[in-house]
UniProtKB/TrEMBL annotation:
This protein's record includes keyword Zinc: no
Protein name per its UniProtKB record: OmpR/PhoB-type domain-containing protein
Organism of provenance: Sphaerisporangium melleum
Family (UniProt): Belongs to the AfsR/DnrI/RedD regulatory family.
Any matching Pfam family: AAA_22
GO terms (BP aspect): phosphorelay signal transduction system; regulation of DNA-templated transcription
Keyword terms: DNA-binding, Transcription, Transcription regulation
Keyword flag Glycoprotein: no
Annotation: DNA-binding region: 1-96
Annotated TM spans: none
Length: 604
């Protein structure tokens, strides 16, 4: 029986960690329990794998009782937050609404304020953004800044705050609240000397308060700082502002910062629509498409095993969404052909240069990342980040604001990626598989050999790639009945080679995904190849994985994280789930490939 949800709860992480239940402060004294809560709140509404939590709480050498201790800490937190804290089979999720966590309220105010800017209601925009700015208590979660899992979120939240602060302070100046804006800028500008929008706002506020010499002096200080720390000159926008102040001309907001001026149209460089063609025979996924379309999240993560249709779904949805993003739509491949990850700085540089920005002389990944976020800040761009190798590659490319939309595909669940909507793809249903195959080879042909078709589904699964390869072969062999091909597949000693059409091969996809010598899951994957056909019981897996890189339970969790295994029967929503009630599924053909790899190793 779960813990009842408290009637009211409010958590703060935009400063010291604070929790209030029913209006009363709650003391969480145990340091590790406080850290656990901070991590879960930083990643509110996302699943954090148990392994990551254990690493964050105990470092590289956790005690033998770490997993049990984690459950004890979770149990203690549930007495405070109730059923908002749940176990998801491989990790924990803390649900929170925008009125229950200050960070979510901050994001909502920022979104509403920027919407008011776009509609031209600057007074309302300034009020909303000002309320968001006043929520910030720097530094957030300072007591946990030494923990990498928290430090990354502190950095991301700080970037978000600064972009909101810049919007707000520019509006205050636009509305002639120069003195009020300057009082805040005098505090913020020295702490973030490289933020050029803040520097421009302070120069303008000083000038409009009659303090011209101080405005010019601020520019000189910034110029020296950029040259010494980054080897850069101030941007053309700042240099133009400096010249305007020298000439005594009151620079307007749009001229000094490059931010949009509602009173006149703005010329911006766009990516245009660069999406690849949509798949004409796209079948199924109605629930997933509807969820992505209706979810207000700025980032949607689509995950699943190789060949399950992640990219096809992302591109299909992107074509539907593209008209709402006038500044362009683009698919960015995060891996090279063959599977090697691409450096995100190269991708940023490539896209920025494509829109006409000269970044050839920019030194330092952080500087380039700042330029990337600045370029995206006031634009509505739709990005598809395809085949992400890890969480850091996604974080580096995400916009700092919510005007743009990002669809991410990955073979891994990327469970540590925060504040994203998650869509996990499974196989197609029988009905969808019949529809898909019918479009490829003809419905009459499918119906004539329906038992053979269903036998293929049962034996080899219903992943879109498997069905497309099978259908493409059958389409070119119109004289061959489906039943005859099904019998041939059963007799084949190298059945993976049968799933190939043109230049596309299932074996090649598996080689790319599962046969990298440095692949972290290789030893466990080979152990799965020794087992009988999936699904596997929990006991089978524990026995097979005993003696691999870690404890069997942790290896199972890592295989779930990598989408090599899945859970066909959802476990109870509780950490104390009974182990023998669980079983695990795996792609039949991926299992066959694991068996082949194991056989090669034994023969070597």
């Amino acid at each position: 029986m779960g813990n009842a949800i408290p009637s009211r709860i409010h958590c703060s992480i935009l400063g010291p960690l604070q929790v209030r239940v029913d209006g009363h402060p709650t003391v969480i004294g145990a340091p590790k329990q406080r850290l656990l809560l901070a991590i879960l709140l930083c990643h509110a509404n996302a699943v954090i794998p148990s392994d990551q939590l254990i690493d964050a709480l105990w470092g590289e050498r956790p005690p033998r009782t770490a997993r049990k201790n984690l459950q004890v800490y979770v149990s203690g937190l549930r007495k405070i937050v109730g059923d908002r804290l749940s176990f998801e089979g491989w990790g924990y999720r803390l649900y929170a609404g925008r009125d229950e966590l200050d960070l979510l309220r901050f994001v909502e105010l920022a979104r509403s304020g920027r919407g008011a800017i776009r509609s031209g209601d600057l007074t309302v925009a300034a009020e909303l953004l000002g309320e968001a700015v006043r929520m910030w208590q720097d530094p957030p979660l300072a007591e946990f800044s030494h923990v990498p899992l928290v430090a990354r979120e502190i950095a991301r939240s700080t970037d978000l705050f600064l972009s909101v602060y810049e919007d707000w302070v520019e509006l205050e100046i636009e509305l002639a609240h120069h003195v009020e804006a300057l009082a805040s800028l005098d505090v913020i500008a020295p702490r973030f000397p490289a933020r050029e929008r803040i520097a421009a706002a302070r120069m303008t506020a000083l000038y409009r308060c009659g303090r011209t010499s101080e405005a010019l002096s601020h520019f000189e200080n910034l110029r020296r700082h950029l040259a010494a720390e980054m080897g850069l000159d101030p941007s053309p926008v700042l240099r133009n502002l400096y010249q305007e102040i020298l000439r005594g001309g009151g620079a307007r907001r749009a001229e000094m910062t490059g931010a949009p001026d509602p009173a006149r149209p703005q010329v911006i460089q766009t990516l245009a629509n660069q999406l690849p063609r949509d798949i004409a025979d796209f079948v199924g996924r109605e629930a997933e498409v509807r969820r992505i379309m209706e979810d207000s999240a700025a980032v949607t993560l689509i995950t699943g095993e190789p060949g399950i249709g992640k990219t096809a779904l992302a591109v299909h949805v992107a074509h539907i969404l593209a008209p709402a993003f006038p500044d362009g739509a683009l698919v960015v491949a995060l891996r090279r052909q063959g599977g090697a990850p691409r450096a995100t700085v190269d991708l940023q540089r490539e896209i920025l240069e494509a829109v006409g920005l000269n970044v050839a002389g920019v030194r330092g990944d952080d500087v380039l990342a700042a330029i990337w976020r600045s370029w995206l800040a006031n634009r509505k761009v739709l990005l598809v980040l395809d085949d992400s190798p890890d969480e850091s590659s996604v974080r580096t490319l995400l916009p700092g604001t919510t005007a743009s939309k990002v669809l991410v595909t990955s073979r891994s669940r990327l469970s540590g990626l925060e504040s994203v909507a998650r869509v996990t793809l499974g196989e197609l249903s029988d009905a969808e598989g019949l529809d898909f195959l019918g479009r490829l080879i003809g419905r009459d042909r499918v119906e004539c050999d329906l038992p053979a078709v269903k036998a293929i589904f049962e034996r080899y699964g219903l992943s879109p790639l498997v069905l497309r390869l099978l259908g493409s072969r059958l389409a070119g062999l119109r004289h061959v009945p489906v039943g005859r091909l099904a019998a041939r597949l059963v007799r084949s000693e190298n059945v993976l080679d049968e799933f190939a059409a043109g230049e596309t091969s299932l074996r090649a996809r598996f080689e790319e995904s599962y046969n990298q010598p440095s692949w972290a899951y290789r030893q466990a994957f080979l152990a799965l190849g020794a087992l009988h056909r999936p699904p596997f019981s929990h006991e089978e897996l524990v026995a097979a994985l005993d003696g691999t890189t870690s404890s069997p339970e942790r290896v199972i969790e890592s295989l779930l994280e990598a989408n090599i295994l899945s859970v066909p029967q959802h476990a109870m929503d509780d950490a104390e789930v009974v182990a023998h009630s669980m079983c695990y599924a795996m792609s039949p053909l991926a299992h066959r490939f694991a068996g082949e790899l194991l056989g090669r190793r034994r023969r070597a």
